[in-house]
Amino acid sequence: MPTLTTERLTLVPLGPEHVDGTWASLQEPEVLRLTGTHAAFTREGVSAWLESLRDREDRADWAILRSDDGTHLGEVVLNDVDAGNLSAGRDALLWDGEWVDAVVMGCLSHVEA
Predict the structure, then answer these.
(1) Which CATH architecture has domain 4-108?
(2) Domain coordinates of the chain in residue numbers?
(3) Does the predicted model carry a pTM greater than 0.85?
(4) pLDDT tens digits for 39-79?
(5) Using a CB cutoff of 8 Å and minimum separation of 24, what contacts does 95-100 make?
(6) Residue 50 is inside which H or E element, if any?
(7) Which of 22, 4, 5, 11 is nearest to 65 (CA)?
(8) What is residue 73's three-state secondary structure?
């Protein structure tokens, strides 16, 4: 999976090295509300989930990092990837609970088809 870069943001494949930022987001009630999440998470379960992402063919998950200092800001996901139909769903979340479609569009505008 490629790393995607804009002037302000870098998207890197989401994995176990991002457990701290992912775990922090799951402690925010507004993030849970906006994502419709009702599950109870453990740090070990989150770490295992992040580890499993590299083997998934039906989704692509990136950590959103601030380019100038590498701060983990959130994630962007292409889910329900259907290569045969060239389609996928997408979600973007910054940890302050705000859905930010501009992040996705800004990064995808740099990807060549």
Answers:
(1) 3-Layer(aba) Sandwich (3.40)
(2) 4-108
(3) no
(4) 889 999 999 999 999 889 889 999 999 889 998 888 888 88
(5) 95/21, 95/24, 95/25, 95/28, 95/31, 96/30, 97/28, 97/30, 97/31, 97/33, 97/34, 99/34, 100/74
(6) helix 43-52
(7) 11
(8) strand
